[in-house]
Amino acid sequence: MKFTKLKEISDISKRLSFALVFIVAMMGFNLQSAQAALAGKGLIHPINHFPTWFSDTNGIALQLCLDGDGVTGLCAFDPVDPANPTSVATGFGAEAFWWLGSATLNLAGTNRATVVLALEAAYGAGDPAPNDQFAFGRVRIRIDVPVAGEYKVWHPFLNEAEGCPPEVFNATAGKRAINVTRDTGGAAPFETMLNGEVGPFLVWDPAIAPTAPAGYVGDPNILHEVIGGHCGINYVRIEAPGGVNLDGAGQNFVQTSLFSIAGKLYDEANTPPGIEPVRTTYFRTSNNSAPFVTTGRINSWVKAPVTATVRISGLPQANGAMAFDGINTFYKRAALNSTNALNVPDHATITATSVNGMETVQDVKIIDQVNITLATWTKATGAIRVVAFSSDKANPATGAVVPELTLHIGSKSWVMSQSGAFGRYEITLSGPDDAYLIPPARVTVTSSKGGSDSEGIAD
Protein backbone atom coordinates (compact mmCIF):
# COMPACT_ATOMS: atom_id res chain seq x y z
CA MET A 1 0.00 0.00 0.00
CA LYS A 2 2.74 2.44 0.89
CA PHE A 3 4.69 1.67 -2.28
CA THR A 4 1.68 2.68 -4.38
CA LYS A 5 1.32 5.85 -2.34
CA LEU A 6 4.99 6.74 -2.76
CA LYS A 7 4.73 6.18 -6.50
CA GLU A 8 1.75 8.52 -6.68
CA ILE A 9 3.57 11.19 -4.71
CA SER A 10 6.69 10.82 -6.84
CA ASP A 11 5.35 10.69 -10.38
CA ILE A 12 5.60 14.40 -11.18
CA SER A 13 8.84 15.18 -9.38
CA LYS A 14 10.66 12.46 -11.28
CA ARG A 15 9.69 14.06 -14.56
CA LEU A 16 10.35 17.68 -13.64
CA SER A 17 13.72 19.32 -13.57
CA PHE A 18 14.51 21.64 -10.67
CA ALA A 19 14.10 24.65 -12.92
CA LEU A 20 10.53 23.75 -13.82
CA VAL A 21 9.58 22.89 -10.25
CA PHE A 22 10.92 26.26 -9.17
CA ILE A 23 9.02 28.10 -11.91
CA VAL A 24 5.74 26.40 -11.03
CA ALA A 25 6.24 27.36 -7.43
CA MET A 26 7.33 30.93 -7.89
CA MET A 27 5.46 32.36 -10.88
CA GLY A 28 1.98 32.73 -9.48
CA PHE A 29 0.50 29.26 -9.87
CA ASN A 30 0.14 28.99 -6.09
CA LEU A 31 -3.40 29.51 -4.96
CA GLN A 32 -2.25 29.98 -1.39
CA SER A 33 0.13 32.66 -0.13
CA ALA A 34 3.49 31.59 1.23
CA GLN A 35 3.69 31.40 5.00
CA ALA A 36 6.71 31.09 7.26
CA ALA A 37 5.58 27.75 8.72
CA LEU A 38 9.07 26.27 9.01
CA ALA A 39 11.46 27.82 11.50
CA GLY A 40 14.91 26.73 10.40
CA LYS A 41 17.23 24.17 8.85
CA GLY A 42 20.32 22.30 9.90
CA LEU A 43 23.81 22.27 8.48
CA ILE A 44 24.50 20.38 5.28
CA HIS A 45 24.80 16.66 5.94
CA PRO A 46 28.38 15.52 5.18
CA ILE A 47 27.22 12.47 3.22
CA ASN A 48 23.99 13.28 1.36
CA HIS A 49 24.57 17.06 1.14
CA PHE A 50 21.00 17.97 2.04
CA PRO A 51 20.11 19.93 5.21
CA THR A 52 20.57 17.67 8.22
CA TRP A 53 17.15 18.73 9.52
CA PHE A 54 14.24 21.10 9.11
CA SER A 55 12.35 22.47 12.10
CA ASP A 56 8.86 23.97 12.40
CA THR A 57 7.35 26.68 14.55
CA ASN A 58 6.27 24.07 17.12
CA GLY A 59 9.89 23.14 17.83
CA ILE A 60 9.83 19.82 15.98
CA ALA A 61 13.02 19.05 14.04
CA LEU A 62 12.98 16.22 11.49
CA GLN A 63 15.83 14.57 9.63
CA LEU A 64 15.53 12.66 6.37
CA CYS A 65 13.63 9.48 7.16
CA LEU A 66 15.79 6.68 5.72
CA ASP A 67 15.14 3.70 7.97
CA GLY A 68 14.05 0.37 6.53
CA ASP A 69 13.57 -0.37 2.85
CA GLY A 70 11.57 2.75 2.00
CA VAL A 71 8.45 0.73 1.21
CA THR A 72 7.28 -1.34 4.18
CA GLY A 73 8.67 0.42 7.26
CA LEU A 74 8.30 3.75 9.02
CA CYS A 75 9.95 5.76 6.23
CA ALA A 76 8.98 6.33 2.62
CA PHE A 77 11.80 6.80 0.11
CA ASP A 78 13.06 5.48 -3.20
CA PRO A 79 15.30 2.49 -2.54
CA VAL A 80 19.02 2.65 -3.29
CA ASP A 81 19.99 2.22 -6.92
CA PRO A 82 23.03 -0.09 -6.71
CA ALA A 83 24.25 1.13 -10.12
CA ASN A 84 24.29 4.78 -9.02
CA PRO A 85 27.30 5.77 -6.82
CA THR A 86 25.54 8.84 -5.40
CA SER A 87 22.51 6.77 -4.46
CA VAL A 88 24.70 4.15 -2.79
CA ALA A 89 26.57 6.82 -0.82
CA THR A 90 23.43 8.65 0.37
CA GLY A 91 21.30 5.61 1.16
CA PHE A 92 18.30 6.38 -1.05
CA GLY A 93 17.30 6.75 -4.68
CA ALA A 94 15.71 9.66 -6.53
CA GLU A 95 13.84 11.08 -3.53
CA ALA A 96 13.31 10.92 0.20
CA PHE A 97 11.32 12.91 2.77
CA TRP A 98 11.88 14.90 5.89
CA TRP A 99 8.12 14.72 6.35
CA LEU A 100 5.23 13.21 4.44
CA GLY A 101 1.49 13.37 5.07
CA SER A 102 -1.42 12.24 2.93
CA ALA A 103 -5.16 11.67 3.17
CA THR A 104 -7.40 9.69 0.82
CA LEU A 105 -11.17 10.08 0.59
CA ASN A 106 -13.46 7.61 -1.17
CA LEU A 107 -16.18 9.30 -3.22
CA ALA A 108 -19.30 7.91 -4.85
CA GLY A 109 -18.71 5.02 -7.23
CA THR A 110 -15.04 4.49 -8.02
CA ASN A 111 -14.12 8.12 -7.57
CA ARG A 112 -11.67 9.28 -4.95
CA ALA A 113 -9.68 12.27 -3.77
CA THR A 114 -6.15 12.55 -2.39
CA VAL A 115 -4.29 15.33 -0.65
CA VAL A 116 -0.51 14.98 -0.35
CA LEU A 117 1.60 17.29 1.81
CA ALA A 118 5.36 16.79 1.94
CA LEU A 119 8.84 18.19 2.54
CA GLU A 120 11.00 16.36 0.06
CA ALA A 121 14.61 15.82 -1.00
CA ALA A 122 15.21 15.13 -4.69
CA TYR A 123 17.57 15.79 -7.60
CA GLY A 124 17.17 18.30 -10.39
CA ALA A 125 17.75 15.84 -13.22
CA GLY A 126 15.77 13.06 -11.53
CA ASP A 127 18.53 10.52 -10.90
CA PRO A 128 20.89 11.05 -7.94
CA ALA A 129 23.94 13.05 -8.97
CA PRO A 130 26.58 15.15 -7.16
CA ASN A 131 25.78 18.85 -6.73
CA ASP A 132 22.24 18.39 -8.08
CA GLN A 133 20.37 18.29 -4.77
CA PHE A 134 17.25 20.36 -4.22
CA ALA A 135 14.54 20.37 -1.58
CA PHE A 136 10.94 21.49 -1.76
CA GLY A 137 7.64 21.59 0.06
CA ARG A 138 4.66 20.13 -1.79
CA VAL A 139 0.91 20.58 -1.65
CA ARG A 140 -0.96 18.31 -4.07
CA ILE A 141 -4.74 18.03 -4.47
CA ARG A 142 -6.31 15.49 -6.83
CA ILE A 143 -10.07 14.98 -7.00
CA ASP A 144 -12.26 12.95 -9.31
CA VAL A 145 -15.14 15.30 -10.09
CA PRO A 146 -18.56 13.64 -10.64
CA VAL A 147 -20.44 16.79 -11.70
CA ALA A 148 -19.10 20.07 -13.03
CA GLY A 149 -19.28 23.03 -10.67
CA GLU A 150 -17.62 24.79 -7.74
CA TYR A 151 -15.73 22.60 -5.28
CA LYS A 152 -14.28 23.77 -1.96
CA VAL A 153 -11.37 22.07 -0.25
CA TRP A 154 -10.24 22.50 3.35
CA HIS A 155 -6.88 21.04 4.41
CA PRO A 156 -4.33 21.67 7.22
CA PHE A 157 -2.07 24.02 5.23
CA LEU A 158 -4.53 26.73 4.21
CA ASN A 159 -3.50 30.37 4.52
CA GLU A 160 -3.58 31.05 8.24
CA ALA A 161 -2.91 34.77 7.80
CA GLU A 162 -6.24 35.07 5.98
CA GLY A 163 -8.23 32.88 8.37
CA CYS A 164 -7.80 29.63 6.40
CA PRO A 165 -10.46 30.09 3.71
CA PRO A 166 -10.97 26.97 1.59
CA GLU A 167 -9.41 26.54 -1.80
CA VAL A 168 -12.08 26.94 -4.48
CA PHE A 169 -12.03 25.17 -7.84
CA ASN A 170 -14.44 25.60 -10.73
CA ALA A 171 -14.06 22.17 -12.28
CA THR A 172 -15.44 20.18 -15.16
CA ALA A 173 -16.45 16.57 -14.59
CA GLY A 174 -13.83 13.85 -14.97
CA LYS A 175 -11.15 11.76 -13.32
CA ARG A 176 -8.60 14.03 -11.59
CA ALA A 177 -10.44 17.02 -13.02
CA ILE A 178 -9.02 18.88 -10.05
CA ASN A 179 -5.28 18.21 -10.24
CA VAL A 180 -3.07 20.80 -8.55
CA THR A 181 0.55 20.45 -7.45
CA ARG A 182 2.39 23.36 -5.85
CA ASP A 183 6.10 22.93 -5.12
CA THR A 184 8.12 25.61 -3.35
CA GLY A 185 11.84 24.99 -3.04
CA GLY A 186 15.29 25.23 -4.47
CA ALA A 187 18.90 24.13 -4.36
CA ALA A 188 21.55 25.10 -1.82
CA PRO A 189 21.35 26.95 0.51
CA PHE A 190 17.87 25.34 0.70
CA GLU A 191 16.10 28.32 2.23
CA THR A 192 13.22 28.89 -0.20
CA MET A 193 10.97 26.25 1.35
CA LEU A 194 11.18 27.95 4.75
CA ASN A 195 8.59 30.42 3.45
CA GLY A 196 6.42 27.91 1.64
CA GLU A 197 3.08 26.33 2.48
CA VAL A 198 4.31 23.19 4.22
CA GLY A 199 4.39 23.29 8.01
CA PRO A 200 4.10 23.10 10.88
CA PHE A 201 4.52 19.35 10.58
CA LEU A 202 1.38 17.33 11.17
CA VAL A 203 2.07 14.69 13.83
CA TRP A 204 -0.03 11.96 15.37
CA ASP A 205 -2.41 13.28 18.00
CA PRO A 206 -0.86 12.03 21.28
CA ALA A 207 -4.27 12.03 22.98
CA ILE A 208 -5.52 9.26 20.68
CA ALA A 209 -4.09 5.73 20.87
CA PRO A 210 -1.85 4.40 19.61
CA THR A 211 0.94 6.90 20.14
CA ALA A 212 3.59 7.46 17.51
CA PRO A 213 6.57 5.07 17.53
CA ALA A 214 9.47 6.38 19.60
CA GLY A 215 11.64 8.70 17.52
CA TYR A 216 8.98 9.27 14.84
CA VAL A 217 5.97 11.55 14.37
CA GLY A 218 3.82 8.77 12.94
CA ASP A 219 3.65 5.45 11.13
CA PRO A 220 2.69 5.81 7.46
CA ASN A 221 1.18 2.32 7.46
CA ILE A 222 -1.48 3.27 10.03
CA LEU A 223 -4.07 5.99 9.41
CA HIS A 224 -4.33 8.28 12.43
CA GLU A 225 -5.70 11.60 13.67
CA VAL A 226 -3.20 14.48 13.68
CA ILE A 227 -2.45 17.84 15.26
CA GLY A 228 -0.58 20.85 13.91
CA GLY A 229 -2.87 22.13 11.15
CA HIS A 230 -3.45 25.82 10.53
CA CYS A 231 -6.51 27.30 12.26
CA GLY A 232 -7.09 23.96 14.00
CA ILE A 233 -7.92 22.30 10.67
CA ASN A 234 -6.61 18.78 11.15
CA TYR A 235 -8.76 17.22 8.46
CA VAL A 236 -9.50 17.26 4.75
CA ARG A 237 -13.01 18.28 3.70
CA ILE A 238 -14.40 18.58 0.19
CA GLU A 239 -17.72 20.23 -0.61
CA ALA A 240 -19.44 19.83 -3.97
CA PRO A 241 -22.27 21.98 -5.36
CA GLY A 242 -25.63 21.47 -3.65
CA GLY A 243 -27.46 18.36 -4.77
CA VAL A 244 -24.33 16.46 -5.85
CA ASN A 245 -24.07 12.98 -4.33
CA LEU A 246 -20.39 13.21 -3.47
CA ASP A 247 -20.10 10.54 -0.78
CA GLY A 248 -22.42 7.94 -2.29
CA ALA A 249 -24.93 8.38 0.55
CA GLY A 250 -26.60 11.52 -0.73
CA GLN A 251 -24.32 14.10 0.94
CA ASN A 252 -22.57 16.80 -1.08
CA PHE A 253 -19.45 16.64 1.11
CA VAL A 254 -16.82 14.20 2.35
CA GLN A 255 -14.41 14.62 5.23
CA THR A 256 -11.62 12.65 6.90
CA SER A 257 -9.39 13.26 9.91
CA LEU A 258 -7.21 10.23 9.17
CA PHE A 259 -3.75 10.75 7.68
CA SER A 260 -0.76 8.65 6.74
CA ILE A 261 2.20 10.38 8.42
CA ALA A 262 5.95 9.72 8.09
CA GLY A 263 8.76 11.66 9.74
CA LYS A 264 11.78 10.94 11.92
CA LEU A 265 12.81 13.18 14.80
CA TYR A 266 16.31 14.60 14.45
CA ASP A 267 18.76 12.35 16.30
CA GLU A 268 21.88 14.46 16.80
CA ALA A 269 23.71 11.80 18.79
CA ASN A 270 23.68 9.40 15.84
CA THR A 271 24.17 11.91 13.04
CA PRO A 272 27.65 12.75 11.73
CA PRO A 273 28.35 16.44 12.41
CA GLY A 274 27.97 18.75 9.44
CA ILE A 275 30.64 21.27 8.50
CA GLU A 276 29.87 24.38 6.47
CA PRO A 277 32.94 26.49 5.60
CA VAL A 278 32.29 30.20 6.03
CA ARG A 279 35.67 31.64 5.11
CA THR A 280 39.34 30.70 5.37
CA THR A 281 41.62 33.52 4.25
CA TYR A 282 45.18 34.61 4.74
CA PHE A 283 46.91 37.95 5.20
CA ARG A 284 50.59 38.66 4.86
CA THR A 285 52.75 41.76 4.66
CA SER A 286 56.42 42.68 4.24
CA ASN A 287 58.51 45.53 5.55
CA ASN A 288 59.63 48.13 3.03
CA SER A 289 63.40 48.01 3.47
CA ALA A 290 66.17 45.42 3.57
CA PRO A 291 66.46 42.98 5.13
CA PHE A 292 62.96 42.17 3.90
CA VAL A 293 60.80 40.09 6.25
CA THR A 294 57.32 38.75 5.57
CA THR A 295 54.89 37.66 8.27
CA GLY A 296 51.25 36.68 8.07
CA ARG A 297 48.23 34.93 9.52
CA ILE A 298 45.40 32.61 8.52
CA ASN A 299 41.84 33.15 9.76
CA SER A 300 39.28 30.36 9.46
CA TRP A 301 35.54 30.35 10.23
CA VAL A 302 33.32 27.26 9.88
CA LYS A 303 29.86 26.30 11.05
CA ALA A 304 29.36 23.03 12.92
CA PRO A 305 26.93 21.68 15.52
CA VAL A 306 27.19 23.64 18.75
CA THR A 307 27.91 20.44 20.70
CA ALA A 308 30.79 19.38 18.44
CA THR A 309 34.51 19.72 19.02
CA VAL A 310 36.16 21.31 15.99
CA ARG A 311 39.86 21.28 15.09
CA ILE A 312 41.94 22.62 12.21
CA SER A 313 45.06 20.91 10.84
CA GLY A 314 47.36 21.16 7.86
CA LEU A 315 48.66 24.60 8.83
CA PRO A 316 52.39 25.25 9.24
CA GLN A 317 51.68 26.73 12.69
CA ALA A 318 48.97 26.87 15.36
CA ASN A 319 46.98 23.75 14.46
CA GLY A 320 44.42 22.69 17.05
CA ALA A 321 41.05 23.44 18.56
CA MET A 322 38.85 26.14 17.06
CA ALA A 323 37.01 28.51 19.41
CA PHE A 324 33.19 28.58 19.49
CA ASP A 325 31.49 31.98 19.21
CA GLY A 326 28.49 30.94 21.29
CA ILE A 327 26.10 30.97 18.32
CA ASN A 328 26.97 28.60 15.49
CA THR A 329 30.49 29.38 14.24
CA PHE A 330 33.96 28.13 15.16
CA TYR A 331 37.06 30.28 14.61
CA LYS A 332 40.83 29.93 14.58
CA ARG A 333 43.66 32.40 13.89
CA ALA A 334 47.07 31.00 13.05
CA ALA A 335 50.04 33.39 13.07
CA LEU A 336 52.72 32.71 10.45
CA ASN A 337 56.36 33.52 11.12
CA SER A 338 58.80 34.83 8.53
CA THR A 339 59.59 31.32 7.29
CA ASN A 340 56.05 29.97 7.00
CA ALA A 341 54.56 33.19 5.62
CA LEU A 342 56.55 32.77 2.41
CA ASN A 343 54.66 29.56 1.52
CA VAL A 344 51.04 29.78 2.64
CA PRO A 345 49.30 26.40 2.14
CA ASP A 346 46.38 26.35 -0.28
CA HIS A 347 44.13 24.25 1.95
CA ALA A 348 43.56 23.12 5.52
CA THR A 349 41.60 20.28 7.10
CA ILE A 350 38.65 20.76 9.45
CA THR A 351 37.62 17.90 11.74
CA ALA A 352 34.35 18.01 13.69
CA THR A 353 33.69 15.38 16.36
CA SER A 354 30.28 14.82 17.93
CA VAL A 355 29.76 14.15 21.62
CA ASN A 356 29.58 10.41 20.98
CA GLY A 357 32.67 10.30 18.77
CA MET A 358 31.23 10.53 15.25
CA GLU A 359 33.69 12.41 13.08
CA THR A 360 33.49 14.45 9.88
CA VAL A 361 36.58 15.62 7.99
CA GLN A 362 36.47 18.31 5.32
CA ASP A 363 39.10 20.22 3.38
CA VAL A 364 38.79 23.98 3.08
CA LYS A 365 40.59 26.22 0.61
CA ILE A 366 42.86 28.95 1.95
CA ILE A 367 42.51 32.02 -0.25
CA ASP A 368 43.36 35.69 -0.17
CA GLN A 369 40.65 38.25 0.49
CA VAL A 370 39.95 40.61 -2.41
CA ASN A 371 38.18 43.93 -1.99
CA ILE A 372 37.22 46.29 -4.81
CA THR A 373 37.51 49.80 -3.43
CA LEU A 374 36.80 51.77 -6.61
CA ALA A 375 34.74 51.02 -9.74
CA THR A 376 33.86 54.05 -11.86
CA TRP A 377 32.69 54.85 -15.39
CA THR A 378 33.29 58.14 -17.17
CA LYS A 379 30.41 58.95 -19.51
CA ALA A 380 32.37 61.32 -21.74
CA THR A 381 35.06 58.79 -22.64
CA GLY A 382 33.53 55.45 -21.72
CA ALA A 383 36.54 54.72 -19.49
CA ILE A 384 36.22 52.29 -16.62
CA ARG A 385 38.61 52.48 -13.68
CA VAL A 386 38.87 49.75 -11.06
CA VAL A 387 41.03 49.59 -7.94
CA ALA A 388 41.20 46.43 -5.85
CA PHE A 389 43.24 45.18 -2.91
CA SER A 390 44.41 41.71 -2.00
CA SER A 391 45.09 40.67 1.60
CA ASP A 392 48.39 39.34 0.24
CA LYS A 393 50.65 42.37 0.63
CA ALA A 394 53.96 40.56 0.44
CA ASN A 395 57.00 42.11 -1.23
CA PRO A 396 58.14 39.90 -4.15
CA ALA A 397 61.71 40.68 -3.15
CA THR A 398 61.26 38.36 -0.16
CA GLY A 399 60.74 35.39 -2.46
CA ALA A 400 57.01 35.26 -1.93
CA VAL A 401 54.83 34.42 -4.95
CA VAL A 402 52.31 37.27 -5.01
CA PRO A 403 48.83 37.02 -6.55
CA GLU A 404 47.77 38.15 -9.99
CA LEU A 405 44.45 40.00 -10.06
CA THR A 406 42.16 39.92 -13.08
CA LEU A 407 39.21 42.16 -13.93
CA HIS A 408 36.17 40.49 -15.50
CA ILE A 409 33.35 42.24 -17.34
CA GLY A 410 30.99 39.85 -19.06
CA SER A 411 33.06 37.40 -21.11
CA LYS A 412 36.09 39.71 -21.27
CA SER A 413 38.97 39.85 -18.82
CA TRP A 414 42.07 41.98 -18.22
CA VAL A 415 45.07 41.44 -15.95
CA MET A 416 45.38 44.28 -13.44
CA SER A 417 48.69 45.96 -12.62
CA GLN A 418 50.18 46.15 -9.15
CA SER A 419 50.17 49.87 -8.36
CA GLY A 420 51.39 51.70 -5.31
CA ALA A 421 51.53 49.78 -2.05
CA PHE A 422 51.97 46.00 -2.17
CA GLY A 423 48.59 44.34 -2.53
CA ARG A 424 47.06 47.26 -4.45
CA TYR A 425 46.03 46.72 -8.07
CA GLU A 426 44.56 49.11 -10.62
CA ILE A 427 43.38 49.18 -14.21
CA THR A 428 41.76 51.73 -16.52
CA LEU A 429 39.91 50.58 -19.61
CA SER A 430 39.80 53.21 -22.33
CA GLY A 431 40.37 53.76 -26.01
CA PRO A 432 38.48 52.37 -29.01
CA ASP A 433 38.86 48.72 -27.99
CA ASP A 434 38.14 48.84 -24.26
CA ALA A 435 35.83 51.80 -23.68
CA TYR A 436 32.19 51.17 -22.72
CA LEU A 437 29.54 53.48 -24.16
CA ILE A 438 27.08 51.75 -21.83
CA PRO A 439 28.53 50.85 -18.43
CA PRO A 440 28.23 47.35 -16.99
CA ALA A 441 26.13 47.05 -13.85
CA ARG A 442 28.87 45.18 -12.00
CA VAL A 443 32.51 44.21 -12.31
CA THR A 444 34.33 41.25 -10.79
CA VAL A 445 37.96 40.88 -9.75
CA THR A 446 39.50 37.47 -9.15
CA SER A 447 42.86 36.53 -7.68
CA SER A 448 45.21 33.73 -8.68
CA LYS A 449 45.24 32.93 -4.95
CA GLY A 450 41.50 32.17 -4.97
CA GLY A 451 39.90 35.36 -3.69
CA SER A 452 37.26 37.35 -5.56
CA ASP A 453 34.94 40.32 -5.19
CA SER A 454 32.14 41.93 -7.22
CA GLU A 455 31.06 45.53 -7.06
CA GLY A 456 28.52 47.71 -8.80
CA ILE A 457 29.75 50.55 -10.96
CA ALA A 458 29.42 53.77 -8.98
CA ASP A 459 26.39 55.89 -9.92
Automatic annotation (TrEMBL):
Domain of life: Bacteria
Lineage: Bacteria, Pseudomonadati, Pseudomonadota, Betaproteobacteria, Nitrosomonadales
Taxonomic source organism: Nitrosomonas supralitoralis
Protein name stated in the entry: Uncharacterized protein
